[in-house]
């Protein structure tokens, strides 16, 4: 036990058990999909259409009917933003959540300035 405090050992075991629960088993095709959309995001393509996401997914061997599920999975993880329930965003997949938030912040800031002038 290397003279280690028993309390520290319990904490270490608890952390390892918790970390094991965080692992999400993901199909290889979904991982490939994520890698490809990250490549687009790295090339400053911040938004793609649902049709483009579907084409990428099918190329990654994901069934067309599962694309929505894949997009929601990565939305829940914060990798992308996909709002199928919002009318003006239902056909858009935002590949860079950070870009979207920063852009939205700029728009809201500009709108706020108009009322103060």
Describe this protein's structure.
It is a single chain. With 117 residues, the protein is mainly α. Helices cover 62% and strands 7% of the residues. The model has no long low-confidence stretch (mean pLDDT 88). Strands 1-3-2 form a 3-stranded antiparallel β-sheet.
Helix and strand topology:
Layout: H1 6-22, H2 28-42, E1 47-49, H3 50-59, H4 67-77, E2 81-82, E3 92-94, H5 97-116
Antiparallel strand pairs: 1-3, 2-3
Helix content range: 55-70%
Q: How far apart lie the N and C ends? A: 69 Å
- Supply the number of helical segments: 5
Work out the number of β strands: 3
What overall geometry do the principal axes of the alpha carbons give?
A: extended
What is the typical, i.e. mean, pLDDT? 88
Strand-and-helix sequence, N→C?
HHEHHEEH
Described by strand count, sense and barrel closure, the largest sheet is: 3 strands, antiparallel
Rg estimate, integer Å: 20 Å
Quick summary:
By secondary structure, the chain is mostly helical.
What structural keywords apply?
117 residues, mainly alpha, three-stranded antiparallel sheet, 3 strands
């Amino acid at each position: 036990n290397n003279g280690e405090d028993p309390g520290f050992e319990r904490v270490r075991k608890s952390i390892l058990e918790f970390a094991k629960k965080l692992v999400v088993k993901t199909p290889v095709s979904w991982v490939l999909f994520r890698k490809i959309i990250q490549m687009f995001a790295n090339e400053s393509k911040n938004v793609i259409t649902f049709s483009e996401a579907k084409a990428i997914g099918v190329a990654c061997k994901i069934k067309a009917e599962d694309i929505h599920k894949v997009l929601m999975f990565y939305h829940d993880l914060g990798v992308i933003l996909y709002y199928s329930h919002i009318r003006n965003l239902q056909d858009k997949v935002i590949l860079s959540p950070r870009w979207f938030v920063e852009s939205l912040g700029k728009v809201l800031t500009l709108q706020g300035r108009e009322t103060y002038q």
